Amino acid sequence: MNQSGITKKDSLARKLFILFSVMGGAVFALIGAILFLFSINFANIAVEKSMHGMAEDIPESLYFDERGTLFYSSTNMAKKWGYDALFNNLAFKVIDRATNSVILTSNQHLETSAALQALPLDLPEGYSFFNGIDRYRFSVTLQGKDLYVDLARDDLIGELANEAVLPMLGQVLTLTMVAAFLIFICVGYVSIKAVVKPVNNVAEQLDGIDPSQLDRRLDKKGVPSEMLPLVNALNDTMERVEKGFKEQKRFVANAAHELKTPLAVLRTRLELANLPEKIGCELMGDISYMTRVVEQLLDLSRAQNQNSYLHKPVNISDVAKDVCMLLGPLTLTYKKELALEEIDKNATVIGDQAALIIMLKNLLENALKHADEGANIIVEVANDRISVKDSGPGIKEEDRVKLFERFWRKEQSTLTGSGLGLAIVHEVTLAHNAKIDVECNNELGGATFHVYFYDRVENTLVS
């Protein structure tokens, strides 16, 4: 079973291959049965045809002398059939149709030839079979006289033919059918692969589209005409999704931007109002929380708007220094220890500096807020990564998959954060072709967030 829950039993290629195999097996079995039935009668059919041919040759060897006596001359035809006549397997007689009397036989000793005994005077014209003997009568006019020529053969010839022909014929038919069936299966397999390949190509294209690439469309090149309606429908669907997603981002950005001014006015009015200290502090805390949510909504909107990014070489060591200086005062507020470790001071990546600052700021704020009082927080810069580690309580393994969901907080009932910080981090990493990895329990006892960059500049210092 693959990630989408589809088993091999659901495979279209498998179903087509089984269908091809079953249908091919049935067709070839039917052909084999027909050929087998034909081969059983092959010798008889062959002998019947040969008897017909010999019967046509006999009159050429018959003649009447001047006294009207019928004679049979030895010809090549007689030599051809002499072996059979020698053993009384083949015999013929000539009958005068006017008197219905036998005027010539191939064997004068009737009692020794079973073939001759099977030729009665009232034999019907054409081919007939009686008591294991094949018979053939035809009429002919020779020198003005109407005659019947009767030809007979016993089953020994047929048996000899069957014994000689059937085994060889059976082997040839078996080998031919097996070879043809194997070729049919191979051709069917290749054909099915060719049919299913466009479906797999479309599936691979769809699988390669992530939420940050909604502007991508499925390539129609090489798609069979039968699949074009499906591909067009998927492209239309993605276009509608992209349009709706853009409208949603635009709405969030506009709403967050419009909320900034009323919140600032409300804060000013509360500061000027003569309210009891406790109520004033609670209201100011609520406004601060709302302001933070609005600011992070704006950051999230900017992180998703990759068209506004200005990608250029950025020294991530300088980014780390700026963020540590910016959030340095919060370490006093939260009573935490902050340190910057530069393993590589010249670590340079391709990216948008403002977005990278927002990303690292959210990672550091997350550590400052959730680490215990007095905890150590370390920002580490290496050649291809930035890491933020703390000595806090760490992260539960079951919470790992939820960390980057929007508005998810470890304590949903509290207002300790907006739940957007790590979602912003995730969007920025996607836009920079980077990867974020979470270590739930590090050597300090807390959690570590590693951001790995793949688009970097080697041995370049950006000031």
Assign a percent range to the helix content. 40-55%
The shape is: rod-shaped
Structural class: alpha+beta
Distance between the ends: 52 Å
| Whole-number total of structural domains | 3
Number of H- or I-type helical stretches: 10
Radius of gyration: 49 Å
**Biggest β-sheet strands, sense, barrel:** 5 strands, antiparallel
On the 0 to 100 scale, the average pLDDT is 77
Count the beta strands.
15
Low-confidence stretches: 1-6, 82-88
Spatial order of the strands forming the largest sheet: 4-3-7-6-5
Features:
463 residues; alpha+beta; Helix Hairpins; Heat Shock Protein 90; 3 domains; five-stranded mixed beta sheet; 51% helix; 18% strand
Explain what this protein looks like in three dimensions:
There is one protein chain. By secondary structure, the chain is an alpha+beta fold. The protein folds into three domains: 1-208, no CATH class; 228-304, Signal transduction histidine kinase, dimerisation/phosphotransfer (DHp) domain (Helix Hairpins); 310-457, Heat Shock Protein 90. The protein contains ten helices and 15 strands. It has helices spanning 12-40, 42-57, 76-86, 114-117, 155-207, 228-272, 277-304, 316-334, 353-370, 421-431; strands spanning 62-64, 70-72, 90-96, 101-105, 126-130, 133-142, 145-154, 312-315, 337-342, 348-351, 376-381, 385-390, 434-439, 448-453, 456-457. The strands form four sheets. The protein has a five-stranded antiparallel beta sheet with strand order 4-3-7-6-5. The protein has a five-stranded mixed beta sheet with strand order 9-11-12-14-13, covered by helices on one side. A hairpin with an 8-residue loop joins β13 and β14. The longest helix is centred in the middle third of the chain and has 53 residues, at 155-207. It is rod-shaped.
